[in-house]
Write a structure and sequence with these properties.
This protein is of the alpha/beta class and 261 residues long. The protein has nine helices and eight strands. The structure holds NADP nicotinamide-adenine-dinucleotide phosphate.
Length: 261
């Protein structure tokens, strides 16, 4: 049985905290810089609410669930004893935790948003550590949370994080923009939702075959027509042109020498 001290009160802390609780991992407490948020999260997890400035209780592991930029300063403010200290960022190295003897990362490959706690067992978790003892601890802990745990060194984790951003953040933001274009013109945004659902289902079977649309077909005149519709939206127009060029050049390599859209 591991005891975990959770540091941070944001989206990851909420979902990870509930997953730890469900896996019957003892929480030594939640430590945050905002008293209200800390008490709210600790209350929902049934553990002690602590201030980051307090003397924090001992635990088998200190889990930093703070913004990427806060990892190093928060870690520097904690005692550098033998307790492993772990961050949750896919894109940050263990060096941020230098000064601590046992360093690790536990990165769940998931997009966590406010709302009900999600089923963590289906979320792949990447772990890495500075030493065999911390790695074994993290593998055991992650194994209680998820059915998929992989050990990846930093270079591969960074690449996976890049892939995760392209997989999730970009398409979700593009759906937001697609909906906005419809709402701005009084059209029901729900009309594109079945398209989104069927596209993601097809893409998981074979992403290459699932790519359709004017750029896949090489219909440059249709692309130019749509770019004209985006004349008042220069940034979205640029993104549309860049993505269309990427698709065109992938499926119609002869267009590589042609003028940019
Ligand atoms: N959300 C995701 O989808 C996701 C997925 C996988 C991994 N992660 C990783 O999880 C970590 C946390 O991300 P998140 O999404 O939970 O972020 P978040 O919801 O924005 O929460 C960030 C937390 O960090 C605290 N914080 C920020 N600056 C601080 C400072 N200087 N000192 C002390 N505490 C500070 C915030 O406190 P206040 O509330 O007081 O500002 C808040 O508790 C990041 O490393 C991120 O890469 C996130």
């Amino acid at each position: 049985m591991h005891t975990v001290l959770l540091i941070g009160t944001g989206r990851l802390a909420f979902h990870l905290g509930h997953a730890l609780r469900r896996a019957k991992v003892e929480l030594a407490g939640v430590a945050g810089r905002d008293a209200g948020k800390t008490e709210e999260l600790a209350g929902s997890l049934g553990c002690a609410a602590l201030r980051l400035t307090d003397a924090l209780p001992r635990a088998d592991l200190r889990m930093l669930a703070v913004s990427d930029d806060a990892i190093a300063p928060v870690a520097e403010g904690l005692p550098s004893d033998d307790t492993p200290i772990v961050h949750a960022s896919g894109s940050k190295s263990l060096e941020l935790l230098n000064g601590h003897a046992h360093r690790g990362v536990l990165w769940p490959i998931q997009s966590f948003s406010p709302g009900a706690p999600i089923d963590f067992s289906a979320v792949p978790v990447v772990v890495d550590a500075s030493d065999a003892h911390t790695l074994a601890l993290l593998q055991a802990l992650a194994g209680r949370l998820s059915s998929t745990v992989v050990h990846l060194p930093f270079a591969k984790r960074q690449r996976l994080h890049l892939s995760a951003v392209i997989t999730s953040n970009f398409p979700v933001f593009l759906l937001r923009e697609a909906e906005r274009l419809l709402v701005d013109h009084g059209i029901d945004p729900g009309l594109v939702h079945p398209l989104w659902t069927s596209s993601t289902e097809k893409a998981l079977l074979n992403a290459d075959q699932a790519v359709t649309g004017p750029a896949r077909r090489g219909d440059v005149k249709t692309i130019e027509q749509q770019l004209r519709l985006l004349a008042d939206e220069p940034e979205l127009r640029r993104a549309y042109a860049a993505l269309s060029e990427l698709i065109l050049h992938t499926y119609h390599p002869e267009t590589r020498d042609q003028q940019d859209l």
